[in-house]
Amino acid sequence: MGNFLFPVAVFFAAIFTDNILLTNYLGMCSFLAVSKELETSAGLGIAVTFVLAVTTPLNWAVYYLVLVPFQLEYLRFIVFIIIIAAFVQLIEMVIERYSENLYFSLGIFLPLITVNCAILGASLFMVIREYSFITSFFFGLGSGIGWFIAIMAMAGIRNKLRGAKIPIGLEGAGIALIIAGFMAMAFMGFSGMIQIT
Amino acid sequence: MARGMVKKTFLTPLGKDNPVFVQILGICSTLAVTNKLANTMVMVLGVMFTTALSSWTISLFRKQIPSRIRMMVETLVIATYVIIVDIILKAYNPEIWKQLGPYVGLIITNCIVMGRVEAFALQNKPTLSLIDGLASGMGYGYVLLIIAFVRELLGSGTIWGYQVLGSWWTKWAIMVMPPGGFFMLAILIWVVHEGVMKEGKNG
Amino acid sequence: MVVTLIVSVAIITAIATLLALLLVIADATVGNYGDVSITINNERELIVPGGQPLLSLLVSEGIFIPSACGGRGSCGLCKVQVVEGGGAYLPTELPWMSPEEIANQMRLSCQFKVKNPIKIIIPEELFLVKEFTTQVEKIVDLTHDIKEVTLKLIDPPIIEPKAGQFVQFQVPEYALSDESVYRAYSMASSPSNQNHVELQIRLVPHGICTTYVHEHLKVGETIMINGPYGEFYLRDNDRDLIFIAGGSGMAPIKAILLDMAERGDKRRATYFFGARTRKDLFLLDEMKELEGRLENFTFIPALSEPAAEDKWEGEVGLITEVVRRRATNGQNSEAYLCGSPGMIDACIAVLHDIGVAEDAVYYDKF
User: Fold this and answer.
1) Using CA atoms, how far apart are residues B185 and C253, in angstroms rounded to an integer?
2) Within a domain: A196
3) Which of A77, A120, A136, A166 should one mutate to test binding to chain B, selecting the residue with the greatest count of B CBs within 10 A?
4) Domain extent for B112
5) Range of the domain at A132
6) Is residue B3 part of a domain?
7) Taking CB atoms and an 8 Å cutoff, what residues of chain C touch B63?
8) Which residues of B touch C205 (CB under 8 A)?
9) Is the N-terminal amide bond of C156 cis, ω within 30° of 0?
10) Separation of alpha carbons C178 and B102, rounded Å
11) Whole-prediction pTM
């Protein structure tokens, strides 16, 4: 595969074959808690996508331009998490100031995702898989879109399940996990479509 | 400190307040490694270490930390302990370290660690917080170990890497794949809610 | 080794400083909304820095809105009516709002950020909630395990409670507790005694506050309290009254009775007070005196396990049995209960049996 196409392949892989939620279980906490409402899910999904697309290349830059030259790779956990936290807070302030609509649909969810494992997870994957800057961006964006698709699908299904008879012990998280399991199986159908190593 | 208090602090997270069953917390970063028992054990030890020591540290400084930057300080303390886990693991067992990949680092975002710090360590004395952290880590750990046990047994026919089920056993490939983790956890939650929790609610 | 250490600390510090600087600059520019005004009940106007949640702005101005979660938007208690300048509802508020509340422009004050001038309405009672500096004036043993503590209000010097309400008592740091905690106690003093607050505190083994009061508290000591709070006060109507209390549940009932006596209230009232043995009974003389001052008032103390040496001639039995025996027709009655949760639940069942309407039962569990 040509160098030029690699980021594109990573992008689609992150959405389908290597979905950050359904194959890597990242971002489960907010996924289970929020997926009851379609609108909230959409807001959170967009927020996650946006933050992932920005922080992954941002962390790439800090990692390769600062930490690697000083041989401080082991500090990446701390550095990544504070960059994510600061970035999220910054964006929240800006959005709150300049667009009320955007703040209502997106900004309000930002504080919730600072501790979302998907965000940190994508940055850590980016390091382990030795992506380039461009690839990191596409990987972050793709992971976000994949997460968005997963949570929207889940919220849609849970909406339909309202009023359905579910064994008491399975109500809430139990049934959500089973749905996630089936969704993961469905996404396994994509495997083989894209091979990235 | 009353002895009853210590015992209670230790036992509640293991039983009726189990973080996984009751609060469905912190499964994200760990469910992924439950397809092998050995990997799960390492992760669980890492989580226990981090939860216990971060709770202890935050509790020690709980009166000095300004509330505005509380979350930031907590995150940094947790991240520090996770780095220690990462370094130790890389030095002593690079094989498993490699398999676990980013999941060791993701202990930082594990809701249990932050959850215990926020809910318990900020109000309690260091020793008690240490015990609470340790017990919460254990309560979380044994659930994952059960999941890992079943997934490895059915999916690979092995326990801790040793062949247990003979060649007659058809491996359930789905068990070691991602959906297996979701299903196992759902089933476990179901069993626990139907059985144990129901009694608790009526009583 | 040393170099690595210094370099790593320097790098982390540099990154953290850079980010902190960025946030501070953003806070001063993007996050700076200037000063805004909050008009309360059309009379008071506060000038506050904008961009912060209404709840914390009000608290910093000394107005305490009840909140259980500390501003995280997870308890839904801190609702405030914003009549002007409220703007649209946030998604984080909506789960807590009923259609009526939205029609009334109620907002969740911990989520609602003040960015432009607003007008709000706060119930008058909340203004009365203040923090008081007090001095311990008197400590008296009422029984072997209940102490009466009288606090003299220093700053502000006056409290305006309704009879039956409670205050929160701040226990300072001491051996059993390494940080100060709050415990709620009903006021036993009459509301007309505005410079004093009288509390009845029963010793609970290992209880942080009760141990402090029983073993450490001294006359002359300074104690912080805040209040008054609570929905446990006498409703104004002409129904007959049934009071039931046990132990230190005496306190709010005593305040209500004193208040009735001062107002010359002629409602028919019966007060059942349950105790185990003679040594758990207290304030019998005061109750006798109140029976003299209140035309239609009867005090019925009852012992559940009178000892032989008590020579008890009054009612014997659990308080529920005594109520069932003595109060038979409850259709036109309302009841005020104060005591342990177990006692209250048992009494509610009895009251229901004798015909007291469910919404005419008020209680204070502790």
Assistant:
1) 53
2) no
3) A77
4) 23-202
5) 5-188
6) no
7) 179
8) none
9) yes
10) 40
11) 0.65
